[in-house]
Design brief:
- This protein is mainly α.
- Helix content is about 70%, strand content about 0%.
- It has a domain at about 1-60: Irregular (MYOD Basic-Helix-Loop-Helix Domain, subunit B).
- The chain has helices at about 1-20, 30-60, 65-85.
């Protein structure tokens, strides 16, 4: 029973990821789909880095630290994902099935 619930949750999460990534809904294999999602996220990371560097050259007075901003965003995202799975941020972690 727990295994079926776990598989159902994974399938739901995979569908959510598919909906977020352009053209991913046409892919049927999970491994290929995950590769496509990874490539898309890496592409977004490169775009953020490029745009951040471009912004820094256009307006150097801003003096922001992009690494600090990105790491803060990653922590916020991680906290959101933990809450999504019912784990309090800062707690001991996820419990296995």
């Amino acid at each position: 029973m727990k295994l079926q619930l776990g598989r159902k949750k994974i399938s739901e999460r995979m569908k959510l990821l598919q909906d977020l990534v352009p053209e991913c809904s046409k892919i049927t294999g999970k491994a290929v789909m995950l590769d496509e999602i990874i490539n898309y996220v890496q592409s977004l990371q490169r775009q953020v880095e490029f745009l951040s560097m471009k912004l820094a050259t256009v307006n150097p007075e801003l003096g922001f630290d992009i690494e600090q901003i990105i790491s803060k965003q990653m922590l916020l995202s991680q906290d959101w994902h933990l809450a999504f799975y019912g784990v309090e941020p800062g707690s001991s972690g996820l419990t296995g099935p």
